[in-house]
Design goal:
Elements: H1 2-6, H2 11-50, H3 53-86, H4 89-123, H5 125-128, H6 130-159, E1 164-166, E2 172-174, H7 177-181, H8 186-215, H9 224-258, H10 260-267, E3 279-286, E4 291-298, H11 301-307, H12 328-357, H13 365-373, H14 377-391, E5 396-398, E6 402-403, H15 413-444, H16 468-480
Antiparallel strand pairs: 1-2, 3-4, 5-6
Length: 481
Amino acid sequence: MLVGLFEGLDAVLLARIQFAFTVSFHFIFPAFTIGLASYLAVLNGLYLRTHDSKYLNLFKFWVKIFAITFAMGVVSGITMSYQFGTNWSVFSDKAGPVIGPLMAYEVLTAFFLEAGFLGIMLFGRSRVGPGLHMFACIMVAFGTALSATWILSVNSWMHTPTGYAIAENGQFVPVDWLEIMFNPSFPYRLAHTLTAAYLTTAFIVGGVGAWHLLRDHDHDRIHQGTRTMFSMAMWMAAIVAPLQIVLGDLHGLNTLEHQPQKVMAMEGHYESHPDGAPLYLFGIPNEEKQRLDYAIGIPKASSLILKHDLNAPLDGLDTIPVADRPPVAILFWSFRIMVGIGFLMLFVGLWSLWARYRRTLYTNRWLHRAALIMGPSGLVAVLAGWITTEVGRQPYTVWGLLRTSESASPLDAPAVGTSLLAFIIVYFFVFGAGVFYILRLMRAGPHVYEGGLAESADGPIRTAGITPAQQSQAKDKKEEG
């Protein structure tokens, strides 16, 4: 029955859909944990500095959410590596000498670093002392960012390949590892992605804080940690949102230099503009007639943004062979979703500054409603950004060198389609349950006596007498009370 369901479909397209589905599920978890790990390190540092129990309660509240999200990120990431061997074996064979070592470094230096200190961060506060526990928090935060750095280096090389040679058997072989790792698009993609992760976390934390401020409108019932996390999230939004827009502009200019047809598709420029290109705000891409229907734009604004000159000429897709053009409709809309959310984030951040100035940050219910609605916006924005980046690379897996159609394994459509269907069912069941539980934890909110992760009463036998952790444990309990 399943064989007949997928008969006649394109196996390469199904393989692309499968990888897009699994990587989209995976991407939302690191996008949250990268920022959340840093937030937890800041909370723990503030608690050690001030001994204010609200920071400890917030740490214990968010560390439970971090543990679940981190686990789902790890599990969802493992399945993608298998697809390189099952669905994309030709790509793995040809590009493996370059991307294989970089992905191994990600596992050895970053994943092990995270895993090695994660247990201490989650369960070690009462066992290792405040100093080592703080060091573990910093290492987990550093490890999440380092893990993203290696992966983004691999991804960037696929967009702007440098430092390689092509062997007689068609494989890409490394010539200069520094050029491979620090390829032309890597710094921009790294800065843009990490900043997006911090913004994603800020708006999730702010959304949770806004929910509890709206729910507990009787201000005597509002836990002081709720105000604190909302305030910290709004500071992050106000500072990082404008920075992200600047970084996005720089990343776009780099893309125009190395992948011009991607920018042409993002802008909806089917035709060339010799004396200044318009910035299209809205339109419906018409692939059949190669034009943008119902276009609404600002004359010459695209030339001003991309070339800093109102009259600068910009080439269109009419200068690119049809076989080398990316899909315009997907890029056109995913780019606008990403940019639109970015400016909404900027608006909320500026609004929070005004409310802070008016001393209404904790009482402005319209601001709280806006922050609550914007809570998941970072996740939508990073997915839209990823779609823009990856779909814009089509029809290549390695830009200009290896086409997607030449990278897939020689599999029949029913084989790929059946595994895709299995992924969809399992992912929605397993990760749906995990997300539901995370939302329940967020709904509960921080408490005055936040319990944190449960620790076993049966610990190892201590033969060293009283440890530093034991000495500080009584002090912590006293301060929590």
